[in-house]
Amino acid sequence: QVQLVESGGGLVQAGGSLRLSCAASGLSGRTFSSYAMGWFRQTPGKERESVAHINWSGSSKYYIDSVKGRFTISRDNAKNIVYLQMNSLKPEDTAVYYCAATEGGNYCTGAYAYNYWGQGTQVTVSS
């Protein structure tokens, strides 16, 4: 089955940067470009929040308002990897970040629309 593995999380000071990676495997005949990808984040007691999304080719992207201008989602379909470059990090960005894949090629911002999920990677931003 499709597996997504996030990496790149860690502890960073406010204003710093991190790049999260999500590697996909087990595509079973489908190409990575068949999937739109998304990044979500969650803190205890809160609903999972949509952060950024990218369509099959990378030509269309979505960002939640709070991260616009700071985060960049990208993908390398040849390597089956989606990235989330996070700059100018704020303590409010602290969360477990999850990548997710949805079949069809075009993204949806709702978590319910995603078929596959990674295990999450912790991002902690200190003040």
Can you describe this structure?
- By secondary structure, the chain is mainly β.
- It has strands at 3-7, 10-13, 18-25, 35-42, 49-54, 61-63, 71-76, 81-86, 95-103, 116-117, 121-126.
- Strands 2, 4, 5, 6, 9, 10 and 11 form a seven-stranded mixed sheet that branches.
Please outline what is shown here.
By secondary structure, this protein is mostly beta strands.
List the helices and strands and how they pair.
Blueprint: E1 3-7, E2 10-13, E3 18-25, E4 35-42, E5 49-54, E6 61-63, E7 71-76, E8 81-86, E9 95-103, E10 116-117, E11 121-126
Parallel strand pairs: 2-11
Antiparallel strand pairs: 1-3, 3-8, 4-5, 4-9, 5-6, 7-8, 9-10, 9-11
The average pLDDT value, as a whole number, equals 95
* SS element count, helices: 0
Shape: globular
- Summarize the biggest pleated sheet: 7 strands, mixed
Helix content: under 10%
The tally of beta strands, per DSSP, is: 11
Rounded Rg: 14 Å
Keywords:
mainly beta; 127 residues; globular; 11 strands; 7-stranded mixed sheet
